[in-house]
Here is the input.
Amino acid sequence: MILVKTEAGQQVFKDRSVPLSPRQRTAFILFDGKRSVDEVLAAGNGIAREEIDQMVDLGLLQPAAGSKAAASPKAPEPATAGKTAATAAPQPSGGSRPPESAKPKPAEPAPAAGRSRQQRYKDAYPIATQLTGALGLMGFRLNLQVEGTTSYEDLVALAPKIRAAVGAEKAAALDKALND
Here is the structure.
């Protein structure tokens, strides 16, 4: 099967709003609409099929138009059927976990507004990354701290620092994603 980058995937690659492992970033570049998944796997960068499937699940890659094996990414679905979009929350750039490691986690109770903590984290993480990334060199350390977060609680703890650095007006979107 031949995969191509989605528009959302290109944006994520550019702004790093979803951390990808170095192997995933390299593989992402290789998906040019000409190479098959097997060719990218054989390229020798050490990427596993599960990592490619994760990029497809996140909407970063999609089957090329007319790709005859378009049903191939659906093959892993039964194994990951219990995985929700919230389980595919961004992972720290230290590497990505296979979907099976995310499966056994019990679902967190939903906060009052109805969104789970994982969903709030998933919504707020790109906003926090964008805000701190826009600070340039001045916000480099804060951006690293945001990229090091792995949970809703970590991001909530950093929110006051982000608010102080960017101002309450710009931080309003982050506050809404975390608390709404």
In short: The beta strands are 3-5, 61-63. The CA atoms of residues 25 and 86 lie 22 Å apart. Confidence is low (pLDDT under 50) at residues 69-111. The radius of gyration is 17 Å.
